[in-house]
Structures are given as structure tokens and as C-alpha cells.
Design brief:
The complex is a heterodimer. Chain A is an alpha+beta fold. Chain A has twelve helices and 31 strands. Chain A has three domains: 256 residues, no CATH class; 84 residues, no CATH class; 119 residues, CBS-domain, CATH 3.10.580.10. The N and C termini of chain A lie far apart (68 Å). By secondary structure, chain B is an alpha+beta fold. Chain B has two domains: 66 residues, 2-Layer Sandwich (Alpha-Beta Plaits); 54 residues, Alpha-Beta Plaits. Helices cover 19% and strands 27% of the residues of chain B. The chains are: A alpha+beta, B alpha+beta. Chain B: Pfam families: Fer4_7, NIL.
Chain lengths: 500, 128
């Protein structure tokens, strides 16, 4: 049995005799020396990750103006921060987007610009009090002008993260990047073998108070992250570090097309090898870390699992789905993760970084709950018109015109002899047919590619589809393509009128 | 070389490409083709030595031909070498080397711009 203490390891760091390796190197060491040998030989294993971490932000203090102001609302380069804290404190979230530049520029970009020494415009407003009489403030600041600039990240360094793909027929713009139609690609995130929490999955050494590498500086774990969900393998960390000590090499703003802004964070966590159990955990390889490939075509909280996959497969460049090789893209940089693990290794080796004992262990059981919703989400079936006029495809255009006129109904669902939806015909289509002197069958003038929806879909999804494709109605169909009703922009307007 | 052939609306119903290929006997390797009832745009590969001849044949039929000489440009400072560009590129311009550095094979690029939208760091653009 090998038993070491953090105190003993720190003594070795101090006198320069410490043996520190990266989590990537540890795999081979455990293979060669066995768990016990590795635990005896190695004192510290360093991990690293560098990827998009939306749940990041900057807590800052501006100092007092003359005359003083109690800031109620504040913008940095037109990106709003939250200032309902005290007079001149604010929290700038990485994912907040600019009022003027949209998703091209957000909180993350302000944070990177500050770090690069750029001047930032500040605009603040207030209601005014006897002690804080000022109502408006405009100034420019740099990082040096702030009293505190603390990166305070509520949820970073996911233990694992789902990979993403897209079964639909159109490109999806997501926080997992651009997902090509018909399973055109798979995107994933995380550093696999180097991933901090994957190397300490039961949180033996990573806990509240653990000293870490964050953005090129020394910072701390301050607890579990929000949405910490250890029972499903989705542990997360809440982190803090001093922006003034960081480097733009390890902190970079990003913007995902059609989605929004985020911050790429470089995080490294040292794992003191106190015993065999910890040594064994740090020998984890890419092939041991599994995750699910989810279908992002489903715009719902529960996305279907397409298949299970491990990081060795993801990092190989392609993954098979239904017998086809699908190219993969990483959204996090393995090269930078490796650089971070190596940088941290040098710090420990040269006695500038000491490992720590957590003051409190992180919870290693439990799951994040979904949102409690007290208002039922209206479904398509709740607002659709179940009165629907259908027509057979071989009837004439005149039959169709008559049906529309008799029923005062703008949309005809065209059905086959067995009752399946095959097309849609609108009053507009008939006008066009008449204008062009076409009086053949309905089939020749109907729209064949019909947008449809299911009765149990939330109305919001149906509304988004109507809007995206610029159509005024969609037949509601069951799994056999039988028409159950129709949802029109009219139905949705009525729903909104009821709501407000 | 890579060329872009635009077929204007009024010519879209004529078999311009086929006629030009038959007339000149020059083979075009069509890499991207977006053609609908209103407009056509193709990107093709053709031997440098045959370019003038096929250009004349296409343009005499009303197509507009341009040489694509703005290969993709990567801002190495901005790029974090994540590899997001790899899976969306139809021509495999991007790949990792054994050190997980990103390699760019500009010669393969057909300038479709997919990678530009994908890059989270705005590090890619078509050069001038």
C-alpha cells in the first residue's frame, strides 16, 4: 500500500525532488510499472483542457466616480453586465451579446479585450439617491483601472460532454458548431485522456479549495459547478481566478455562427498521487471515456441518443453511424490542453505551484433536475384546427376551388386513396393555376413537399418552423401520415392573444 | 486551376456546360454545383493550359467565368487549433498532424466558405 500526503508531496516540490508527469504520460507509466509502482514513483499528475465554456464571466469593481453613482444598469462596449449587486460592482457574463454588434461580439470578447489591455467603453445609468446622486456615467477603462477583475465561472470543465450530430435535412447552427444535414458530421468537446475530472472521477483530490491553473494564472476550485450531475458522469466545477494575472494564450473569446458568444478557457488541474486508487484513475485512456452522440435535430431537452462512442473513436477523425463514416470535429483544442498540462507540470517541477487538499469534497452522487414548469406548454393539438378539408389528388382544380369557397378555408390537404397526406393546395395555388390556365388535376398544381408537424410538438417549435420556411400553415399528421388537423399562423396569433 | 462558372437566369435552360465540353473536348471536374430554376453556380477544376479555350466556349454562351485565386487564409494568432473546421470542409483541406497541430492544404480549397462560418474564433477568411 502506497500512502502519501499532500504535505509530503509539497515538501518534494519545495526541494525539487518531485516527480510530475502529465495525464497522457501517466497512461504508459501505469502500463509499465503497474498501479502500485506508478503510485510510488509519481507524485503529481497534471491535466488540462481548453474549450468553449459558456458559463464563465467576470466579477469586477469599477471604483467610485465623483459625484458617485449607484449603478443600476451598465454596458461594457455595449454588452450589458449585471449590476444589481452594490454601487460599482458588476458581473459580465461571457454569453451576453452586444446591443449593437449582435452575436459577433459579446461578454467573452470584452473580457479578452480587457486582458489584451484595450480600452473599454463604459455606459451606466441609475435612478439617483441622496448618497449616490449621479444618474448617468460614461467613461473608458482598461484592466488596470479596475479594483478587482475576478473571473468567476459558475460551470466549467465538464467531466464529459455529449457529442452532436444532425439527422435533419438542413444545417443546424448550435453551440456545438455547424451540424451538417443527414448526419453530415459529428462535433465533440473535451480533452479525453487529459480531461481533469475524467482523471479523478470520484473527486478524491479535486474539491472546494483545490488550487488550479486557470487562464494562465493560479486560481481555485470554489465548489461544484452549476448543473453538477455526477451520477450521470456530468460533474462540473465552479472556478475563480484573477484576470489581471491571466494570459490571452489561455483565454479566448469565440462566437458560434447562428448561436452566440462563449469563452474558450484553459484549465489545468494537478492531481496529487496519494495512493493506488488515485494512480489508477489517472491512467484513464481516451478509449475508456465514453459519451453519447445526440441528435440535435430534435429541438427538445431530451435529444435521442444516436449511439455511444468513446474519445478514441471521436479523435480518430471519423465515427460510424449506420455503416457510414461520419467526419468528426473537435471544438476544444487538444494541442492547447496538452500545452496546459505541460505548463502546469513545469510550474510544479520548478517549485512555483504547490498542490492542495480540498477543504471540502465535492458531492459524487446526484443529478441536475430539469426545470419546474408550472405553466403547461401548449401543444400543437391544443391549438390546431381539427376541422380540415381534404381533397383527392386526382380531383380537378375546379373541385378544389369549390371546396375552398364552400368551406371558407384557405388550405386543402391533398390525400391519397388510402388517406395519407401527399400534398397541400392553397387558394393562392388555385389563383396561380387559373392565371396560367391550368385546369388539370389537383396533383399538377399542389405543393408536394409539405411541411408537417406532430400533434404532441410544442407550439413554439411549430411556430419556429412556419417562420423559418415562410409558410402560413402546416397539416398535423400522425405516424401513418394521416391528417389530424391543421395549424395555421391564425391559430398561433389567437394563442398569443390569449396569453397576453 | 479552380474556376467559378455563373449561369445567369436567362440562360439557365440552355445546356451551356455540356455544349462547351462537347465543343472543346475539355473535361471539367465539377466540384460544387448549385443550380435551380433561377440561377446556376458551379466550381470546377480544369487544367491551366485548357482554361482559355473552355472560358471562351462558356462565355460565348452567356456564362460568366472567374478564376478562383483567393485561397482560404488562416489567421494563426487567432486560431486555437480546435479542429472545428475539419468536419465541415467538403474537400478535406484541414487535418491534424501527429502533434494535433492544424494543417491547411490550401490547394484543395474550393472556396465554399463552410469553414468560415464554422470557425468559433473567426480565424478563417478568403484571402484577397
Amino acid at each position: 500500500m502506497v500512502e502519501k500526503s499532500v504535505h509530503e508531496i509539497n515538501k518534494k516540490i519545495e526541494d525539487g525532488s518531485v516527480n510530475v508527469v502529465t495525464a497522457e504520460e501517466m497512461v504508459g507509466i501505469v502500463e509499465n510499472l503497474g498501479v502500485e509502482g506508478a503510485a510510488r514513483e509519481v507524485d503529481v499528475v497534471t491535466t488540462g483542457t481548453f474549450g468553449a465554456m459558456c458559463s464563465s464571466g467576470l466579477m469586477l469593481n469599477l471604483g467610485h466616480s465623483e459625484p458617485p453613482i449607484k449603478i443600476q444598469k451598465v454596458w461594457f462596449n455595449n454588452v450589458e453586465a449585471y449590476s444589481g449587486i452594490a454601487a460599482v460592482d458588476a458581473y459580465l457574463g461571457a454569453a451576453q451579446i452586444s446591443n449593437t454588434r449582435g452575436i459577433q461580439y459579446g461578454g467573452a470578447h470584452v473580457i479578452e479585450d480587457l486582458l489584451r489591455g484595450k480600452e473599454i467603453n463604459v455606459h451606466a445609468t441609475s435612478y439617483g439617491t441622496d448618497c449616490y446622486p449621479r444618474k448617468v456615467l460614461d467613461t473608458t477603462i482598461t484592466l488596470d483601472d479596475l479594483n478587482e477583475a475576478v473571473l468567476l465561472n459558475p460551470r466549467n470543465a465538464y467531466q464529459i460532454y455529449n457529442a452532436a450530430t444532425n439527422s435533419s435535412k438542413r444545417i443546424l447552427n448550435t453551440y456545438m458548431g455547424e451540424l451538417l444535414p443527414n448526419f453530415g458530421n459529428i462535433t465533440y468537446s473535451g480533452a479525453g485522456v487529459l480531461s481533469p475530472l475524467s482523471n479523478d472521477p470520484t473527486y478524491e483530490t479535486i474539491g472546494t479549495g483545490t488550487r488550479i491553473f486557470i487562464g494562465g494564472a493560479q486560481g481555485y476550485v470554489i465548489g461544484n459547478g452549476t448543473q453538477h450531475s455526477p451520477s450521470s458522469g456530468f460533474g462540473t466545477l465552479m472556478l475563480k481566478g484573477n484576470l489581471k494575472e491571466m494570459s490571452p494564450e489561455y483565454l479566448r473569446a469565440a462566437s458560434f455562427t447562428g448561436y452566440g458568444t462563449t469563452l474558450y478557457m484553459g484549465i489545468g488541474i494537478p492531481i496529487p498521487i496519494l495512493n493506488e486508487k488515485i494512480a489508477a484513475a489517472t491512467a484513464v485512456r481516451d478509449e475508456d471515456i465514453t459519451t453519447n452522440v445526440l441528435d440535435y435535430a430534435v429541438g427538445s431537452r431530451d435529444k435521442p441518443v444516436v449511439r455511444m462512442v468513446n474519445y478514441a473513436e471521436l479523435r480518430s477523425g471519423s465515427v460510424q453511424i449506420e455503416g457510414k463514416d461520419i467526419p468528426t470535429s473537435s471544438l476544444s483544442s487538444f494541442k492547447n490542453a496538452r500545452k496546459i498540462a505541460n505548463e502546469l507540470k513545469e510550474w510544479v517541477k520548478h517549485g512555483t505551484f504547490f498542490v492542495s487538499t480540498p477543504v471540502e469534497r465535492l458531492c459524487c452522487e446526484g443529478s441536475a433536475k430539469p426545470m419546474k414548469q408550472t405553466q403547461a406548454v401548449p401543444l400543437v393539438k391544443d391549438v390546431m384546427s381539427d376541422f380540415i378539408v381534404t381533397i383527392k389528388k386526382d380531383q380537378t382544380v375546379q373541385d378544389a376551388a369549390k371546396k375552398i369557397w364552400e368551406n371558407s378555408f384557405n388550405h386543402l390537404a391533398v390525400v391519397s386513396d388510402t388517406g395519407e397526406l401527399v400534398g397541400i393546395l392553397t387558394a393562392w395555388d388555385i389563383s396561380k393555376a387559373v392565371a396560367e390556365n391550368i385546369f388539370d388535376s389537383v396533383e399538377s398544381v399542389m405543393t408536394k413537399k409539405v411541411l408537417t408537424c406532430a400533434p404532441n410538438e410544442p407550439v413554439d417549435l411549430a411556430a419556429r418552423r412556419l417562420d423559418r420556411y415562410g409558410v402560413s400553415a402546416m397539416p398535423v399528421i400522425d405516424t401513418q401520415r394521416r391528417v389530424l388537423g391543421i395549424i395555421t399562423s391564425d391559430n398561433i396569433s389567437k394563442l398569443l392573444a390569449r396569453r397576453y | 486551376m479552380k474556376i467559378k462558372i455563373c449561369i445567369p437566369t436567362e440562360r439557365i435552360h440552355n445546356p451551356i456546360i455540356s455544349e462547351s465540353i462537347i465543343e472543346t473536348g475539355i473535361l471539367l471536374n465539377i466540384m460544387v454545383a448549385n443550380i435551380d430554376s433561377t440561377y446556376g453556380e458551379l466550381i470546377a477544376d480544369v487544367k491551366d493550359s485548357r482554361f482559355d479555350k473552355i472560358k471562351n466556349a462558356l462565355e460565348s454562351r452567356g456564362a460568366i467565368v472567374a478564376i478562383l485565386d483567393r485561397p482560404i487564409h488562416r489567421d494563426e494568432e487567432e486560431c486555437v487549433e480546435c479542429g472545428a473546421c475539419i468536419s465541415v470542409c467538403p474537400m478535406n483541406v484541414y487535418a491534424f498532424d501527429e502533434n494535433w497541430s492544424l494543417c491547411v492544404d490550401e490547394k484543395k480549397c474550393i472556396q465554399c466558405g463552410m469553414c468560415i462560418k464554422m470557425c468559433p474564433h473567426g480565424a478563417l477568411k478568403l484571402g484577397e
